[in-house]
Structure formats: structure tokens, C-alpha cells
Amino acid sequence: MKFTFKILIFSSILLFLSFITVPQDLILWRNNNSLQIKDFQAIQKDTLKTGNKKFLGAISAISIEVITTQKSRYTPPKLVVKNYFDKQQSWMLVKNDYVLQHEQIHFNISELYARKIRKSADSLARKNITNLNIYRNMVNNWEQKKQKTNNQFDAENDDSFLKIGKEIFFKKNPKQKEWKNNIEDELNEMNEFK
Length: 194
Hints:
194 residues; alpha+beta; two-stranded antiparallel sheet; 4 helices; 5 strands; 46% helix
């Protein structure tokens, strides 16, 4: 009994510290804390053309971290869900506000799905669901939907470009602004779960 209590206290301290410290290479999603060009610190890759003339001006390494704790198998688990941008794994070939906005939308999409995970976990806990596999399946389901949404966003924002020497000229896709507004509206609707 004492050993279990000590583990619980130690786990609680670690969980508390995880709220306080975030490694310098990671940016935790927060309101009014937009990405900046300087945040893309990985070695720049020349991938302007991949596949069938696909434009890749930047890559963002974004992930949702889910930490699960459960006091006993008879109580619902607690989920701590964080949405991170990894500076050291993200790079930008075309450094302008339009490409930066595109990557911010990806970060916002990830935050939207982090909120959906939090909301679903809250709903399961209210129903007193204690099976960890149900929570894992829920997280995996939202992760798959997040990836599908990101793919759809990229597909609808397939920008046309022309490269002359080292200069890159491209036509901005008007759907990007529509996506930006829609995702921001959805984030606002789920403010309770930020």
C-alpha cells in the first residue's frame, strides 16, 4: 500500500512538472502565440517538386502528446493532451507570410483535434468508462481524422508555382483564407477544451 502511494505521489509530481516545463525545441500551442519563420530550424531541404509538381514550401513537425494516468482500474483515467510544434524537425524553403500562415493552419488543425480528444475523454469519464483501450481507440480515431483533415487541407491548397533560378513565384490559393477562418471558428466553438 505504501509503495503504491509513493508511486502515485511521484507520478503526480512528474505530471505537475510536465505542465511547467516544455523543452526549448518544442512550442506548445497557445492562443495568440503564432509560429514565426525563425521557429523552422531544421536543415532546409530542396523539395519544391515532389511527385507530380507538388509544392512543398515548408514542413511542420506537429504532434499531439497524450499522457494517461489512472489511480485504479475502477476509476476513469485522466488524460493530459498537449499539442506541440517541434522546431528542430520543421523546415521552411519558401520563407514568407503566406507559407507561414499555411503551417500555422496545420498547427491549428492539430490543436482542434487535441480539443476533440479532450472533449471525448471528458465524455467517457462522465460515463465512468474505465477501460484504457477505449480511450486509446478514441485517441487513435481522432489522430486518423486529424491526418485526413491535414491531407484535405493540403489537397485543396495545392499552389501553382514557377521556379526561375533561385526565385520562386507562386499563385496564392484563395481557399487558404477560407480554411484559416473555418478552423479558427471551430477552435472558438471548442474553447472550453483548450
